[in-house]
Structures are given as C-alpha cells and as structure tokens.
Amino acid sequence: MKPLVEYALRLGDDGLVLGQQLSEWCGHSPMLEIDLALANIGLDLIGQSSHFLKLAGDTEGEGRDADVLAFHRDVLDFRNALLVEQPNGDFAQTIARQFLFSNWQELLMRELMRSHDATLSAIAGKAVKEVVYHARFANEWMVRLGDGTEESRNRIIAGLEWMWRFVDELFAVDATVEELIVRGVAVDPRLLRAEWDARIAQALAEATLEAPKPRRAASGGRSGHHSEHLGHLLTEMQFLPRAYPGVAW
Amino acid sequence: MKAAAHAETGEALKDRVLEILSHVPDPEIPCVSVVDLGIVRDVREDALVITPTYSGCPATLAIASAIRSALDRAGLGRLRIETVLSPAWTTDWISEEGREKLRAYGIAPPPHGAARYSLRDAPAACPRCGSPHTEEISRFGSTPCKSLNRCLACGEPFDRFKCH
Ligand SMILES: [Zn+2]
Predict the structure, then answer these.
(1) Across the interface, do B164 and A129 touch by the CB < 8 Å criterion?
(2) Superfamily of domain A3-215+222-243, CATH level 4
C-alpha cells in the first residue's frame, strides 16, 4: 500500500471511530449543553474523516470512496489508534479520552497545515479551527471534574488511569510515517510530545490532578491489531450499508 | 473553452449566477444566502466553485443540491459544482450585508478575524438590545457554527456565530 494511503487512513480512521463513539452520547448526556457539544465534536471529526478517507481512496486509485472505506472494511483493515476505540464508559472516561486526543490532534493539525501534500494541508487548515474548540471543551471539563466533587474527582482519575496507556501510540513512528516525514508530507509526532506534555501538565495542575504513573504502553492500532471494542463498534456503524448494499437516502 | 453561442461569459455570467445564488438560503440559517455566507469562490464558464464551511457541516450536501436546482431552473445546467477546501473558509468571508441579516435575525455575528484561534472572544453585543453585557452559556449551540449566549441586561438567550 502506498504510504500516503496508509497515512490518510490512519488520520481518517481516528476521526471516524471517535466520531462514532461520541455520537452514542446523543440523547444520553448529563446536560443538554454537553449533548450538543459531544454531537458537534463527533460531527466535526466525521467530517474531517470523510476528507481524509477520500484522499486515501483517490490516492489508492481503485475506485473506493470515503463511504466504501468507512463501511466496507473489516476490523483488521482499520488503522486508528487504540485510544479512540476505548469505550465511552461514563462521562468522565469520555472526557479523559477527548482530553488526551484533542490536545494531540490540535498540535498535529497545526503542523499538518505545512505538509507538502496540498490536500493534507487543506484538510488540516479546516480541521485545526474545529479542533481548538474540542481541546478547549475537554480541558474545561477536566478542571470541572477534577476540581469538583469527590465523586467527579474519583471518576476522572479512573478515566485517566484507563486511557493513559494508549497515549504513547499517538507519538510513535514506523517505517510508513518515517518515509513521509522525510518527504515533508507527514508530521513527525515525536516533535509534538514536549508541547503536548506541557499542555496536559498545565490542564492537570488546574484540575488539581496528577498525571497517572507511567505504565506499559499498549499499541498496535496503526497496524490493524485492535482491541475487542472496535469490532462491536463497527458492527453497529456498518450494519445498514452491509445489510442493504447500495442503499441511499 | 469557447462559450456556447447563447451563453453569456465572464463578468456577465458571474453577475447573473451571483444574483441567482443570492436567493438560495442557507438551510440552517435561512436569513442569509449562500452568497452572504461567502462560500461561493468562483464562477467559471463551465463550473461554479464553492467551499464548505465546517468539515462536518451537515448542510453541505443540502446546500450543493439547492444550488444545483437553482442553476438548473435558470438554464445553467452546464455549470458543474466544484468543491475546494483551500483556502479554508472563515467567518470573515461572511459579507457585511450577511452580518447585518444575522443580527436582525437574532444571531450575533462573529467577531472579525483577529480573534481566530484565540477562543477568548470578547462578549458578543446582544442582538436584541445591543448591550455588551452578555455571557457565553455553551460553546456548542444548535448547529456546529453557533454558540449559546445570554444577555445579562435584557435576559434573553441568543445564538452567536462562532469565529472560525
Ligand atoms: Zn439584551
């Protein structure tokens, strides 16, 4: 597979999977404002994803469009990071996941705007403006939950503990990305780590929380080795187009 | 490309297309047209170039199909609709007229570009009473492009177009 196809799939699948997860909150959130926020964030991510998947399909040149890639690939073909497929859990766990992801995605999109690939750069230019809102929303809720009641504090600590092991994968580089970095197409995520660490530390301090202790990192999503959760998510997400091939509004 | 014998070209075509599109409303905020919104990028002999507002804006498809119908009705079926992502749309593309229409409709227009990326937007002026004493209730409102605010002077809640 061409490296650019692989890279675009990774970016697209991150947004698609996380967007699908967030859509599950619709109608179930603790407050109306949160319901609107999570649905809107999910919508942004799925919109960005459709642009990345279109790029993957166009570059591949085998006639697969964004819908085919979203709805007609199986678990092993998905390239999202493990973080985004972690279950919603309670609201605190969802916020912990968003907090770690959106702060990373914002830094990533800012850099990706300078990609030598014009399409990647254009998608990132649109996405970055959306993602700053996501990061801001997640950071504010980290503070409210961490510096809130004993109950909210315990829950956000548990949420962070769960999600923390999936962070390192966001900053990992393999041969595919390495090649694209050299060509100025992909962002080198290792160069984002220091700023990400600083942002996370600042938000956690404001939330009167401590970063979880380092633990053995889990990875594999970028090469198709996923947790059990992704299969369940795809079953739900892909049911309609698979049961009724070619169905349209 | 040689224009068809009956087809107007250049500026004349552009003016006519913009006139037609100025009657195509945004499906989510019908007080403004797609021209007011600033999503029309170019009119060429064979194509109309538009740009999406937000990546995930659910109105994107509805807008494209409304534009298609309007062009077809005007006998401009030969114009394809092309979508470009770059340069990215920003709220600064909304025309002055569009901003006035938003305000009259009860939606505070977005601050001008200086605030982009800052997120610390100054409070909006209340679109009903004009008071600057307002507060943001939620950064995410009834559509992806709006935040929810409240006027501390007259007590009315109102939408604000987010700076984007
Ligand atoms: Zn007022």
Answers:
(1) yes
(2) Ferritin, core subunit, four-helix bundle (1.20.1260.10)
**CB-based contact, A116 to chain B, within 8 Å:** no
Q: Which residues of chain A make contact with B111, given a CB cutoff of 8 A?
A: none
**Peptide linkage before B87 cis (omega within 30 of 0):** yes
Q: Contact A44/B56, CB-based, under 8 Å?
A: yes
> In residues, how long is chain A?
249
B125 Cα: distance to centroid of ligand 1 (angstroms): 8
Task: Read off the pTM.
Answer: 0.89
pLDDT < 50: residue spans in chain A: none
Q: Closest partner residue to A43 among B56, B88, B116, by Cβ? A: B56
Joined tokens for residue A37: 């926020």
Distance CA A5, CA A16 (A): 16
Q: B2-89 in CATH: which number?
A: 3.30.300.130
CA A60 – CA A65 distance, rounded (Å): 10
Per-residue model confidence as pLDDT tens digits over B111-145: 887 445 555 668 889 999 999 999 998 888 878 78
Best to test chain B binding among A14, A16, A36 (most B CBs inside 10 Å): A36
Question: Cα–Cα distance between A36 and B125 in angstroms, integer?
Answer: 23
Please give the residue of chain A at the shortest CA–CA distance from B145: A40
ipTM above 0.90, yes or no: no
Tens of pLDDT, residue by residue over A118-154, are 999 999 999 998 999 999 999 999 999 999 999 999 9
